[in-house]
């Protein structure tokens, strides 16, 4: 079968493309900038954008299954879900996975109401890959993470595990109509994550606790490289308060590990310690 991957150049999409290729499937990738996608040579990369339904006809043509994401640029939920679903059904797509963002848009209800065999993927914890952007710069520069609420728990999920659940749902039976809540295998504090990165890099890395007031003052004067801060609403003060509220009140769904990855794929979910070893060079000064 030919499988279309939207968001193929993204954090989860790249892993999904690699896993599908390794399993022997033909992969077509949707990209706004095919020339810069940097995907394997075996991938058919087509130009298109989910916010522009007219660009999807060529992408869906001859495709039997597709991986969709519910957000466009700026992580905003798509407002053209019904049109996307109609284009997919018209082209003969039979099976889809749908990766959700922070909030539901128009694509989820359109998919659920369609004739497609759909599987919804809901990562409820932060991606381990966010650590690269969030903590890479400060750890490379001075080996210290300065944040509030250092004892908050999060069941961070490896992006390759999200892709593995998607690949399984796209290529095997028994997943239609399912909504899978995906997390990592354990709940860790930021302090524990820094210790894992210290062990992986062989460096003396430290976590320094800030009070909420200290964090607000720091973040409004010099915005941190936090992915969630970048997409939070409002100006610097509003963004800082948004992140502080989230850090102080981590939802139970984001801090409680699930067995979804192992139950769906038959393989245990990857730990943060494993992720840290794989990405250790990114937290050393030489990676700057």
Molecular structure report:
This protein has 288 residues and is an alpha/beta fold. 40% of the residues lie in helices and 16% in strands. The protein has a seven-stranded parallel beta sheet. The mean pLDDT is 94.
Topology:
Elements: E1 2-5, H1 11-22, E2 26-31, E3 44-47, H2 57-60, E4 65-69, H3 81-91, E5 95-99, H4 107-112, E6 117-123, H5 130-142, E7 144-148, H6 159-171, E8 178-182, H7 190-201, E9 206-210, H8 212-221, H9 227-231, H10 236-248, H11 252-255, H12 260-265, H13 272-278
Parallel strand pairs: 1-2, 1-4, 2-3, 4-5, 5-6, 6-8, 7-9
Pfam family, one: NAD_binding_10
InterPro entries: Ergot_Alk_Oxidoreductase, NAD(P)-bd_dom, NAD(P)-bd_dom_sf
Domain NAD(P)-binding: 7-99
Descriptive terms for the model:
Ergot_Alk_Oxidoreductase; Rossmann fold; seven-stranded parallel beta sheet; 16% strand; NAD(P)-bd_dom; alpha/beta; NAD(P)-bd_dom_sf; 288 residues; 2 domains; two-stranded parallel ribbon
Q: List the total number of helices.
A: 13
CATH class of the largest domain: Alpha Beta
N-C termini distance: 41 Å
DSSP strand tally: 9
Largest sheet: 7 strands, parallel
CATH topology category name of the largest domain = Rossmann fold
How do the strands of the widest beta sheet line up side by side? Answer: 3-2-1-4-5-6-8
* Helix proportion: 40-55%
Q: Strand fraction band?
A: 15-25%
SSE succession: EHEEHEHEHEHEHEHEHHHHHH
Question: Which architecture of the largest domain does the CATH hierarchy give at level 2?
Answer: 3-Layer(aba) Sandwich
Radius of gyration: 20 Å
Q: Catalogue the unreliable spans.
A: none
